[in-house]
Fold each of these.
Amino acid sequence: MTYGQDPLKKAFVKSYGCQMNAYDAGRMADLLAAEGYAATDAVEEADVVVLNTCHIREKAADKVFSEVGRLRVLKAERAERGQDTRIVVAGCVAQAEGREILARTPAVDVVVGPQSYHRLPELLAESHRRRVVDTEFPIEDKFSRLPARRTRGVTGFLTIQEGCDKFCAFCVVPYTRGAEVSRSVAAIRSEAEALVAGGVREITLIGQNVNAYHGEGTNGATATLAELMRALTDLPGLLRLRYMTSHPNDMGGDLIAAHGDNPLVMPYLHLPVQSGSTRVLQAMNRKHTADDYRRIIARVRDVRPDIALSSDFIVGFPGETDAEFEETMRLVSDLTFASAFSFKYSPRPGTPAAERTDAVPESVMSERLSRLQTLLDAQRHAFNAATVGSIVEVLVEKAGRHPGQVAGKTPHLLMVQFEAPVSTIGTLQRVRIVRCGSNSLFGALETDAAAAA
Ligand code: 5AD
Ligand code: SF4
């Protein structure tokens, strides 16, 4: 039983958008933990609420203002009970619209961008005197100012590269995340060691343009992503490596080869193409053609025929004609994707494409998106269904949906549920796939006896 106010401070951190944001949110939780805040999933009991926001499309950005509206009510209710609540808006909306957030939403105490969140404790302290905005791109290395990682779980993200110099005509990332910067191999290795020591068995190396990685190697020379992954393969206990998100123009020969010669690199490639029309790709400033993309995929499949291919698509980029959209449909039919994300074009303030006056009508965009998604869904289903009957290696991540079950992922990133003791969590198990559901596969542990039968 407790009397009066719970002395333990609590923090609620919510992340929107990409894996990089999820990583940053985890690091902010680590920072707050070092300041004595326990993590909570119950926002109403939080003394600090952090919203790590996404600016990539209009819908994502709009969520911030509706969420802050709900938090304002909560903050007022807690204030009536004598409890203080600090509201922090972090992430890419913070970066892009910092001052506007303060002006529009009086309940917000701190606005902090993705490159300055290591200063969160100072900013929180300062917020008791005045509301603060920090959207600098500081010179100091954010990562070296963060506390050691507290790992949770069998899989973990690790940021190796941030920012983007590509300036695709539709995209806010180069403005919100800034120029491309790669961390050194030594810094990444030491974070990877901490992850593995904490029980992580699969690391996903992340970056806005992860395959443009060019960090300082241990010998002083610049290392590529393939070289970095090679430098991580001997970490005892590390079983798998993945990376995302990549750009076609940075798909170097050694990276393609890594899918064949580095046993830790999983047979999965997320390589956004955006459109199957070279004219649209040019208008998007992607700097490659549809045929370039097809050639890259052919080379990857030469090395790793079973690779699961994933991509991002935008329909209704300004000026996209019916015939150009059909080229996207044809590319998808020809290449077949195991999974994909597809979006209607959303004009973003400050990007070159937002200036264009040849918008595709909303109804046309909706129809195109629905046709594309129907095709991509059918391909995803076919890919999943084709696994039935095969034996796959599953990295067990957690307890399953039902008692006695565990769940984990295949090399192709498909979730499988099967019966096994929880002591298998963190290990690789051979599993026979017996059934394919809409979001999961169901399997049976392949014991030696079953294998011999
Ligand atoms: N409109 C629609 N989709 C976008 N993306 C990025 N910017 C926009 C935009 N303005 C999509 C791209 C990118 C993914 C992360 O989000 O497909 O690869
Ligand atoms: Fe955005 Fe293009 Fe950079 Fe990807 S490569 S983050 S889509 S500008």
Note: The pocket of 5'-deoxyadenosine (ligand 1) is lined by residues 56-57, 170-171, 272, 274, 312, 314, 343, 345-346, 348 (CB under 6 Å).
Amino acid sequence: MPQLTPLKIKSFKKEGRKIVTLTAYDYPSAKILDTAGIDILLVGDSVGNTVQGKTTTLPVTLEEMIYHTEMVARAAQNALVVADFPFPYCQLGAGEAVRAGSRILKETLAGAVKFEGGEKRAETIAALTEAGIPVLAHCGLCPQEIKQSGGFFVQRESEREQLFRDLRAVESAGAFAVVLECVEEELAKEATQLVSIPTIGIGSGVHCDGQVLVFHDVFGYTPVPGKPLKHAKRYSDLNAILTIAAQCYAQDVRNGEFPDDAHSFKGAAKKTAE
Ligand code: KIV
């Protein structure tokens, strides 16, 4: 199967084929998701929360995004790899954005970048796409604006006009698809009908052209127990699995049951450590 491209992903909408997206941040998890047939591996700036243990995505740097994206892109044979623009690269204008975007494509082999913001950032998106840097836009709730917005709010009827202007603007600027974050279901349905590019929803209901979720939420790999996010369905409980495995290992070491004969090198012959 040839590796998916932004244009192929765009064509899924006409074909009525749902776009399956998950975040990924390292080589082994990316390999698993790629082999499982996930269409897009998004190296989200959510790496700040999920991997670095920070409370927002704002501290994530361009260097860190390049570091994680390179690992994910090396693992992906089928999926399109998309790297997030970290704060404040969506806000610095076209020149900085093209410089950052071209570094991402050159240094990581990613196929596209993700870019938060709609109408007010459309010129920058156009500069990126004109420079040959494919853009997955991101409208609705934009986590990089958390300090200004004061929280993560679901986008409802009162945001309709701005949301629709944002979607039309990113479509005209050449984005190949758009992430729609936390938009009330009926509004997301209308938004999806409004534009020719696919909408990839997170917390935006079933009518979007695709879905994206965060790896750690989906697989239950979150160290803080607490209530799961409403939109994030959990498909496994890695927390519990890893806790039990770690306890078994600790017990074996403390009881002298590990390493046993099967895991020890014995005899005089020279061997490789395999
Ligand atoms: O950073 C991220 O993981 C994202 C997704 C939640 C869409 O932006």
Note: The mean pLDDT is 95.
